[in-house]
Known about the structure:
Elements: H1 3-12, H2 44-54, E1 65-70, H3 77-91, E2 96-100, H4 108-112, H5 120-125, E3 135-136, E4 142-145, H6 160-174, E5 177-181, H7 191-197, E6 201-206, H8 212-225, E7 229-235, H9 243-248
Parallel strand pairs: 1-5, 1-6, 2-4, 2-5, 6-7
Antiparallel strand pairs: 3-4
Helix pairs in contact: 2-3
Amino acid sequence: MSKNFDLLQRASQGEWGRGGLGLPPPVSRMYEMRPVPSAHVLSREELIKLVQIVFLTPGKESRRAVVFTGAATETGCSSVCLGAAHALAAQAEQPVCLVDSNLRFPSLHLCLGVENRRGLSEAISEGGSALNYVKKLPVPNLWFLPSGMKCSPLTGAGGLSGRLAGRIAELRQEFRYVLMDSPPVNVYSDAIPLGQWSDGVVLVVSANSTRRETARRAKEYFLNAGAELLGVVLNNRTYPIPQVIYDRL
């Protein structure tokens, strides 16, 4: 990756402590993937299949920056995005950055047990490198950009959208893969410009609760905006027999 990423990698390994880039040290606690409250997470095998299809399919054009959004609220989109980032970091040799771009209701920092004082919102409103706001997670190849404290819509006046697009482009230069969690598209418009500036969108729907019309309308939003819909994840599926039996089929 870039020279800046090499410096960030060395800083996270304790070569300069809190000096140099001014970054906090890696989180000391053991990494544990925990679901967002009231949400279910796909199984490990399903997450591996997801990242293989979206990011690692041989012969297809590389998808490096992908947005995850729910068709509606309470689909478990944040949990799916978090799980996908973890699965991708385990399979890829290049660095992966997980971004909490849900500035309205951020939750990934709670799942990861890290602070959220400075993040994407500050990176948009302030100067300096985007790497100054990124945190190293205690798993190989995985980094995290929290939402930050200045929670607000991603779209608005004053050149906000342009600065956000610039930050995404910067992250693409520093990291091989960028996974962005965003608010539900049928409730807020934030995911639409993110989809336009990325390589595509993964839409998350919830079994037995997301209506067909809601999913269809979400699909049309991205198609009309010129964003590529990479696929749909069916989350919160219930199984009439134990999962271990399904895994053996």
